[in-house]
Amino acid sequence: MSQVKITVRKNGSLRVDDPNGVVEMVDADGNQYDLTGKTAFSLCRCGASANRPFCDGSHNKIAFQASDTAIKIG
Length: 74
Known about the structure:
Blueprint (H helix, E strand, L loop, with lengths): L4 E4 L5 E4 L22 E4 L14 H4 L13
């Protein structure tokens, strides 16, 4: 069974790869998003998407910049 993988894209979205369709995503009120059939999707980090929480590519239009990088532990 493949694992869920979340990739922080440079100056872009959070890419969620869910090969087994096991991710459950809910809003602040506990309402579930319909991810039926989605084995991959991207979440907005810039706040400009018209389809939040999903990415629509708006980060490119607003020149979103983020300095996120993984920190090695140990």
